């Protein structure tokens, strides 16, 4: 049958094709769906299909019969179009002279055999090529439909993209509108807030203006009061200056009269041999002139003389008048004696009796017929030994904490600073405010020395933080006590008593602190020993001045007034310490450095030659602070000592005191004379009474 023959021809063509000649292995069947996927996948034409359509089909049609050729042409024309058949990529290779299938050989025999053998194979596979070409055409049509569908899909996507772009643009516009609205709202809120702040600021400004007007009114009132006070002070100053000028003119008049009286005193007994009494009167007259000159010089530097200066000048003038009266009386007596002697000589000459003149009497042995013994300059050996022991103890204490002060460790330095503050700050806080405050300061110092922690600068401090802490605190504490006497007591004499009572209480509980206080006191004020350092050969003048207690800075020695002020402060502190005891102590034991040491100091200072300006100042300070306590303790012996000072020691001080340094001597003399007249030493100003400790 023709259909069956065509089927066989088709199968023969497939078997003769390249794929039909492939060998398939049985184990591919085990791969399962992988092989089936290749079978059910979209068929694809071979790359040689074009070549087959262009070259094989024409040769096949030539070998077919006319009926088969027409049938083939009809089938071909119905299924395929030449325009749709792609050209084979190996067309040039099929009929090229250099093709491997038809190589050009010299004989050409081999090529002919192969061509003859290939021609039946091509004839047999024409049906397969037709099928493959149809498949290729279907595939091309399917691809064109896919391309058309792809084009439509792309256009659809482009429409969607344009729609999305327009939607995004609209959303961006809405976003910009919302953002602008938000900015506008924020601007409105900010504007409202600024307007509100402006209104509040205006209200505050009005309030400040009102307050300023009120304060201006108060300040104007205060200025008016201050102006009235200034006018009052100006008026008072004017009156004071007028009174001062009156006193100054009076002082100049007193000086003029005093100088005139002194000239008269000098003219008494002139050109004659002067007796001792007359010489003493003239010396005293010169001293009074120097005193008045010193007062005038001081007042010219400080302003106008005070009523006290005028009173001193008037008393000096009165004393000068008395001196002149005494000198004239001496001169009258001398003249009377000379007249009597002349009368006797005349009578003797008349009687012509020779007389043997007596030898001149022995030189005068001083007032009262007793020759005064020279006082010593050096301190007693026992006192000097005691002074050296205290200084050696101070040096040993410094060596004991040398490691603490010379350490470079920051932690050790911090401990040193904390201990120094804990030791010195409480001493600086001592005042006469209340006894309870004084007790708190004493307890804090006592706890620190006892090893207990105390609060200082917001931190807990204890001497147990360093092995050398106790020695360091004791030394710095004693140094601070003496420094307070040198500075605070020197400026405010009443401050000596609260500082002294705390120092005395600490001394009683911690004796080493007391020894260090004495060592610092003797070093800064050697007159509290009493000790007058001697100038040694080879010693620098500045070192000697420091030994005397002067402060020397940049080769400049401090002024005498400042020096006396510091010595006075330390002596007042010492005089307060020896008479005071801590009121909350046991009092079962004696004072560690009581009034007996004050009596010893007074006796030794009177056994030594006085120093100009220094001895009178320190005696006055000592007696003013401690005189009342010594009077109660020693009674009659004390008054004998006061009489000795007046009768024997005052002339010695006066003899070495220049006219410009008589102020301290006159102050001491007036104080002692007043006390001797009243038979009582007044209680010092600032003395701590029992009511102070109840506050």
From TrEMBL:
It comes from Myotis davidii. GO terms for molecular function: inositol hexakisphosphate binding; phospholipid binding; translation initiation factor binding. This is mRNA export factor GLE1. Gene3D superfamilies: GLE1-like. InterPro entries: GLE1, GLE1-like_sf. Keywords: Coiled coil, Cytoplasm, mRNA transport, Nuclear pore complex, Nucleus, Protein transport, Translocation, Transport. GO terms for cellular component: cytoplasm; nuclear pore cytoplasmic filaments. Residues 62-123, 331-373 are annotated as: Disordered.
